[in-house]
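Archive maintenance. Older records in this collection stored only the sequence; we are now back-filling the structure field for every entry so that each record is complete. The fields below show one back-filled record exactly as it appears after the update. Entries are processed alphabetically, and Short-chain dehydrogenase is next in the queue.

ARCHIVE ENTRY
Title: Short-chain dehydrogenase
Organism field: Gemmobacter nanjingensis
Length field: 262
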Amino acid sequence: MGRLDGKVALITGAGSGVGRAAAAIFAREGARVTGVSRTAAALEETGALLRQNGHDFGHSAQDISLAPGAEAAMAAVLAQHGRIDILLNAAGVGYSWQRQSPGSMEDVAATDPAKWDEVMRINLTSCYLMSRLAVQQMRRQGGGGALVHVASVSGFRGLPRAHAYCAAKAGMINLSNAMSCAYVAEGIRSNVVAPGYIATGMVESLLEGFDDPAQARQMSPMQRPGRPEEIAAGCLFLASDEASYCSGSVLVIDGGMTAMQG
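Back-filled structure field:
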């Protein structure tokens, strides 16, 4: 307990999945948390979860894939807490986005340019916009801070579909690498968590494969999907001072999937 005592954390994607789990574990470890999501109702659900455990939770419903939304999100955390020490970029869309936005999770040949731009904006541009603002504010505070980005093992492995998603997650990984080189001398660390199959709505349609024992063995040596809390634990480590010698790191949390598949 208390691994983030005195820290202020801004968590994007805090309305569900890994972002919600991270909000809970960060608050439990002493951070003052502001959550961001596009949906106010989802943030209220996260807030109710934290408050029933005795934690405060500030939030702001914004579309951070656009500059005005990102700026409003940063303004919210500064209004609530006066500073930012940790930025967790957990916002994004995955396979489930195909239901809401048909054609967004296809191969390159089948992906309309507007759908490509949409996925890249939500999954990668939001990371750029929020990281840019966080670094600027951390500098105003005198330097120091942690940037943590939730990418995917699909950022360094090919998939037959979801090419915009794969490209965005690869971009997130290399953007983090570049930021780690640029800002680590100022005490600002940048690191990535790369999940495999995690039991969230983003990959709901793929999780059915774990119902088949033979297919489950191919998907992960552990033969189960990960839990959002297991990814949040990795985010907690990279956000904490325990990771003081980590910058430009990619922490893979995938149940051994990439080790098995090479």
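Update note: Strands lie at 8-12, 32-37, 58-61, 86-89, 145-150, 188-195, 250-253. Residues 128 and 175 are 8 Å apart (CA to CA).
Entry marked complete.
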